[in-house]
Amino acid sequence: xxxxxxVLPRSAQARPSIQRxxxxxxxxxxxxxxxxxxxxTGEQGIFGFVIDxxxxxxxxxxxxxxxxxxxxxxxxxxxxxxxxxxxxxAGLAALPWGLDRHHQASDFDGDKARAKAAQIVEMxxxxxxxxxxxxxxxxxGPNDQWLRRDINMMRLVADEIARxxxxxxxxxxxxxxxxxxxxxxxxLALIHSLEDAPCDSIWLKIENFGDDASxxxxxxxxxxxxxxxxxxxPIVGDFLGGLPGLGALAFGALGGMAHGVTIQQNFKASxxxxxxxxxxxxxxxxxxxxxxxxxxxxxxxxxxxNSSPRVKALCGCKDTHCCLHGTRDMINHPARHALYxxxxxxxxxxxxxxxxxxARYLDEKVRRISDxxxxxxxxxxxxxxxxxxxxxxxxxxxxFRQAVAHxxxxxxxxxxxxxxxRRAAGG
Length: 427
Fold this sequence. Notes:
alpha/beta
């Protein structure tokens, strides 16, 4: 009888759902219009938008539209830069929990801490945020004076959320230097301390790590992230992009990533540690060349794409859903192109069984980029500065490829990070 039975495919509702890896966008001061345009296209690869507290009024239209389309809205209270001499500014001072100077540890003691927690939750409730990045600070290690206060603030914020009666998730934003994350004893001490911190997920914001990280540093990051899995909540890499970020997803170290619009794909806090010089300017848009894992200035990208028909054919966007007019739209609409391409990269990993994600990442991403960078770097006629940049990238990607290939052989993905839930899925 079995030979005569035809097994029909299960309906979509009956099939096991794929755990989609998370992707969140940090919205800069002037990004709201382009994000509104992106939402209007029905983009579903983005889980939510991180809004800086000082820009809440400026991004009101974006927030309204995003929430109506079931994107998460995440409030960043900006306490990390507010606690440093170089990160504090007039815009942050004007926040309800701001001061005319940078925060000091004693500002988070007793009634002052409770007042700040109440003010942060009040803003989140008033503006319809679905999540809050906890009011934490950049740490120097497990003995930092901020750690105890940060954990207490997480408790106070959780209490205020419960008192409000509004369902808002709480994220622990753990910001610390890469060299601290590397040291396992210090890392385990931090993880142990965080056991008492109420939170629905942990976002790792690691100084001196991001899209420009070497293969060796990326492997160290992946190994370190696995120690956080025991908490049993989603782990997200913040200020993270490029091959290192995608690798952390592919190897199961992270369940999601967050970064800015062509910027903020690595975290450096050097400017926070010194007084501001008064020359702060908004960074210009960069052009994402996924075939080379490069973010280039507009002029450099144009130079590259115009250098030869071969380069244009290799590096130009051929996805008409992304760039209808090819390279012209890449240059003229860099935000749309960069976020669309990143969302597709993450979706590609999500749609691959975990058992083969690392292999696919190595073969279809790392190896291909390594080969393409070598091919473009060898083309004659490029400007000297651009050719030098490509040659440097070629050497870096080659070493990166060797390091992550060794990690795949030597360290199987026995521990897999939970991915953050999608608001659209949960209603």
